[in-house]
C-alpha cells in the first residue's frame, strides 16, 4: 500500500517541509540542501529528546533555540519516554505540522 503526503505550497510554489534538528552539522547541512538545492521552504526545525538517554538530555535547548533564531526558522522541541511514545508523537506532530503549514500559507 502506497501512502502519499501532500505538501503545502508557498505562494512561490515551494513545498513546505520540516527538518529534524539536533544542532549538529548533519542536520544543518540537510537543512541547507533542502533550501538551496531542493528549493523547499523549511517551515520548522524539529528536535526530539529521549528522556531515558542521558546524552539526549544534555543537548542544550537554549543553544538549539539560538540556532533556530539565527537562521530564522522556528524550532519545535518534543520529549518522549519510549520508542512507542516517539512513534505516536511523530504521527501526532505530522498532523499538527500539516495543519500549521496550511494555516500559514
UniProtKB/TrEMBL annotation:
Residues 16-86 form the Diphthamide synthase domain. SUPFAM superfamilies: Adenine nucleotide alpha hydrolases-like (SSF52402). Signal peptide: none annotated. This is Diphthamide synthase domain-containing protein.
Amino acid at each position: 500500500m502506497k501512502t502519499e503526503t501532500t505538501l503545502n505550497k508557498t505562494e512561490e510554489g515551494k513545498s513546505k517541509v520540516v527538518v529534524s534538528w539536533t544542532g549538529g552539522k548533519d542536520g544543518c547541512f540537510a537543512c541547507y540542501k533542502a533550501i538551496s538545492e531542493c528549493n523547499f521552504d523549511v517551515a520548522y526545525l524539529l528536535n526530539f529528546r529521549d528522556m531515558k538517554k542521558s546524552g539526549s538530555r544534555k543537548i542544550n535547548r537554549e543553544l538549539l533555540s539560538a540556532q533556530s533564531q539565527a537562521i530564522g526558522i522556528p524550532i519545535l522541541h518534543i520529549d518522549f519516554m519510549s520508542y512507542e511514545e516517539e512513534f505516536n508523537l511523530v504521527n501526532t506532530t505530522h498532523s499538527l505540522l500539516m495543519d500549521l503549514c496550511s494555516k500559514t500559507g
